[in-house]
Amino acid sequence: MVAGRITVRLLRRVGSISGDLAKINISDEYGQIVQQPGLAQIAQLVENINVSLDMLDRERRFASTIAHEIRSPLAGIRVQAEEALADPDRVDYSAVFEGVLRGVDRVEALATDLLLIARSRAAEIEWEQINLCELVRREVAARTDPIPVEVICTFGVLVKVMPTQICEIVTNLLDNAQRYARHQVQVQVDRSDRMARLTVCDDGPGVPEKDRKRVFDRLYRLKTISQHGSTSTSTGLGLAITWEIVRAHHGTVWVEPAPSGGARFIVQLPLASPSGPET
What we know:
The protein is of the alpha+beta class. Helices cover 50% and strands 15% of the residues.
């Protein structure tokens, strides 16, 4: 009889959870399952469901934000095309085409960033062991930045990664540093215990303490003005992509104040093997 009563009580609670989930699905709005006293297993189930609901809500808000971002350049392209068709004899087609191409670049950049987010957890079978310092030096040498980038390396820092995605991290962090730096950008590669460390510093305005955790959120845009205007096709997803890639590589990334007063972004990745002597 006791076992029967416990079973009935558990079934009622499971039924209540199921009903709450059904209401959330029907309303298509954010909701949570209310925790109630009871067995630890049921409490854990409710907690896991609420975590999943949080993730789904973030994905929904992210999709809404991206849809808005895509509509803006498309609306600009439509306006320019309609104005050209309305008065074709007085149109500067060169200017129209330039405007259309800027809109296309914006949409293409968004599509590329979304694809990178989707692929950030690629299977480890595609990973390979690389020298992090060599990769960073190669990426910096291939850039044409307005502010020279100083590279400081500890050699023999080996990591097992997807090289193309680590290149994306370096690109995103350097693009961000160049956007806000005044006179100085520095990249450093070293190691600490069993972790490889990639650090990118600038001497810009830095990231306020209240924004340091949120700056990697896909939905968050830092309210700091660029030192060089805002003419790039940046989608604002670079740091979110960096966070996704680092997490997929079992690492961590954070931002803190730089000695120069700007921002210092630090990426830590597991070392592939014990490093050799420094050179």
